[in-house]
Prior knowledge:
The chain has helices at about 40-65, 65-70, 85-104, and strands at about 25, 35-40, 75-80, 80. By secondary structure, the chain is mainly α.
Amino acid sequence: MYWACTYWEKDPWSSRDFHRDGSLLAYGKEELGYTGPCSTLRFEAVRDGLDDYDMLCMCEKLCGADKMNEILKKVTTNILEYTDSEAVFAAARIELGNAVEAAQ
């Protein structure tokens, strides 16, 4: 839960607290070539999770719960047991996308 997504009191690029405070957006710096709001790794991770959820829902709708669970079990069996292997996640995402595409 985030109490704010765009709040910071000082320059977030030079603040050590910025990396711990859960900020989702930062304000760009002219020296970096961008002066508007910019994404953080946290924000991109949230976005990726929402994309994964949407794909799982589409797979369940188009291919059935059994196919969705077959793919899902390759990365997790419950909320406390999951892989941290990027290769396993990537393979599951590809399989998920292929299943959804084939069902359309």
